[in-house]
Amino acid sequence: MDAGEMDRTLLRKKLLAGERIFGTLIVSPSPRWPKAVRGCGLDFVFIDTEHIALDRAQLSWMCVTYHAMDLPPLVRIPSPDPCAASGVLDGGATGVIAPYVETVEQVRSMAGAVKRSPLKGQRLRRALDGEKMEPELDAYLNEIAKDRILIVNIESVPAMDALDEILAVPGLDGVLVGPHDLSCSLGLPERYDHPDFLAACETIFYKARAAGVGAGIHFWGDPEEQARMLKLGANMLIHSADVMLFRKHLSAEIQAIKDHLS
């Protein structure tokens, strides 16, 4: 295992313990990409199907490949849909990130899909309501769930208002700030250096860590801005994206070549 890479069991333990873990958004399904990513100091990869067009076969290939490389794949689904969560887990995802969550019921339904699978329907609802299960079934479900990770996006004022209750839902492993949507919900679109936006992030991070839940953010910008989010209390950082990093470095190098010609 290369430095910085880990298996799914260790990733969840580090997330819950508040240890810092690092990932990046992987957009490309190219078979060349896993080898390029390996050895970059990542602890996991983030695959987004909310905003990126990936079909189920591509997604499963990516999940299985990164998992085999000890880079656990965390997949954001298009909406807080338990069926979508089950689908990406069946395809090889280590964990599920549910976008734009605002209610306890949404988190409970996601926890049912991620942590109580393969229970469904009435039996799942009774389990989520606290019905005692047969010891053998309970042990079986706990064994399946021990390495699975559930993270929800906190990216609106209503989500912040409900945060204490959301953090108390059994089975939740982490919250992830969605900076663009949160800044818009605060009435500060893309004002990522505004004191109110930074205070909102700090509040989310603090409450999550106080509840024993991982606190993360998907962010971009220079290293100083990234480090500021960790200093505010986040212990999970999703840094930029493959396509953004490619564009940034390609643009800089093309410009450097032109500068040498002048």
Please characterize this protein's 3D structure.
- The protein has 262 residues and is an alpha/beta fold.
- It has one domain: Phosphoenolpyruvate-binding domains (TIM Barrel).
- The chain has 13 helices and eight strands.
- Strands 1-2-3-4-5-6-7-8 form an eight-stranded parallel β-barrel, surrounded by seven helices.
- α4 runs parallel beside α5 (104-115).
- The longest helix has 20 residues, at 242-261.
- The protein is globular and about 75 Å long.
- The termini are far apart.
- The mean pLDDT is 93.
CATH class: Alpha Beta
Output the structural class: alpha/beta
**Can you tell me the overall shape?**
globular
Share in helix: 40-55%
Q: Overall pLDDT, averaged? A: 93
Instruction: Return residue spans where pLDDT drops below 50 for at least 5 consecutive residues.
Output: none
Number of strands: 8
CATH superfamily grouping: Phosphoenolpyruvate-binding domains
Order of helices and strands: HEHEHEHEHHHEHHEHHEHEH
The CATH topology: TIM Barrel
Distance between the termini: 46 Å
Q: How many domains in all? A: 1
**How many helices does DSSP assign?**
13
Short description:
The chain is α/β, with parallel strands linked by helices and 262 residues long.
What's the topology here?
Blueprint: H1 8-17, E1 21-25, H2 33-37, E2 44-48, H3 56-68, E3 73-76, H4 82-90, E4 95-98, H5 104-115, H6 121-128, H7 135-145, E5 149-154, H8 157-161, H9 163-167, E6 174-177, H10 179-185, H11 195-210, E7 214-219, H12 223-231, E8 236-241, H13 242-261
Helix pairs in contact: 4-5
